[in-house]
Design a protein that fits this description.
By secondary structure, the chain is an alpha/beta fold. 32% of the residues lie in helices and 23% in strands.
Length: 505
Amino acid sequence: MAVIREDDFIQSIADSLQYISYYHPTDFVKAVNEAYEKEESQAAKDAMAQILINSRMCAEGKRPICQDTGIVTVFLKIGMNVQWDAQRSIEDMVNEGVRQAYLNPDNVLRASILADPAGGRKNTKDNTPAVIHYEVVPGDQVEVHVAAKGGGSENKSKMVMLNPSDSIVDWVLKTVPTMGAGWCPPGMLGIGIGGTAEKAMVMAKEVLMDPVDIHELIERGPQNRVEELRLELFEKVNALGIGAQGLGGLTTVVDVKIKDYPTHAASLPIAMIPNCAATRHAHFTLDGSGVAELNPPKLEDWPEISLAGGEGSKRVNLNEVTREEVMSWKPGDTILLSGTMLTGRDAAHKRMVEMISNGEELPVDFTNKFIYYVGPVDPVRDEVVGPAGPTTSTRMDKFTDTMLASTGLLGMIGKAERGPIAIQSIKDHKAVYLMAVGGAAYLVSKAIRKSKIVAFEDLGMEAIHEFEVEDMPVTVAVDVNGESVHNTAPKIWQAKIGKIPVETE
């Protein structure tokens, strides 16, 4: 009979969360590199290069792959013969492990969890509580799967109750394009089929913990209906041409994972959850012999990739840029930004729009400035700022018209596409929207030379910062005429791939 000590369990949870914050699973690195090597879309190839370079930098520097260090999900399979040497409940032990991991001074992780979600939405300050799933199984070990899931990809989760005669493939192909690029492709799709609504969702999340093995499946061939579905969806989802970061290209997913369960004769529950380019999960087993050992990968597991030296890029001084200059930028242009920008995301936008509505003066001047949608990780040691990648821009869409109409803002920088309302506002006010690569947060932070909080300090990571940047790479995603690269590029690449007809409007 294994005896699991409280301190060993807590330390193993804490260690695993630190581990996955800066180490990608090596199978995922290999899969993204293979996609990078074969990619024909230059914009998508550049985005994957940033993701791979960022991944290696994080492994070397032991700093987070993404500034959104996620909501923690833990799957536990507890052996029936296990005995606990512990005073706390399993839930309390998991949360203590989360607390220790996220408050580790050597690698501070961003606390993103808010209590009272329908009310005050107050940050718990330590990223607790985790979401925990338990299963009691034969044996004398505790098997643990730990994941940290970012909000951008989690928010794109989908669930439907199909009729038994409906096509799963048709639903997936109809649904994936509606997810946009806020889930930061290339990544994986986890699909749960059967059971009940909640069972399907849990299966979709759990199956994302499996290793990337689609190419091995392609080589040996399918042996059951689930494997046939995986292969069909892998080919057809990539044929949609969405590509890395939604910029159009050959690879949108590096794998499709499916888990199924018997269901009611009248039902066909289907859940789909994407894993982003910051895929983070670890698996370990406790047998009573002590703290789990998590062996670090070798740096040789990462490809040697360097970014192009700014060829074809436009260098822009943010302190001198004019509206006339912005009007010359075209969708897909690569811009290297230097100078001063301001930051702000959901909570700051909500507060500013309320102040504008009340006739109050804003605490910062946005005239001829750019606002970067980001909530950075706190810095450690000699860092100016911690990992500082973009957050999903569509969450700011409802604030965009007020901000552009009332503040003199020139443009915005964020992640993925903008919705129709925001695009119309951008067009009406002759502004511009620039896209930074999601999943390259540590790389982006190295372009930030100075940082200070200038307003709303009480909002924590959502406070307004002033960044001074040098050669921060971005792509023009929506120009002053309202043309969006996220609307045009996937259609172009879907037509080039030629496996799925492009719908005409």
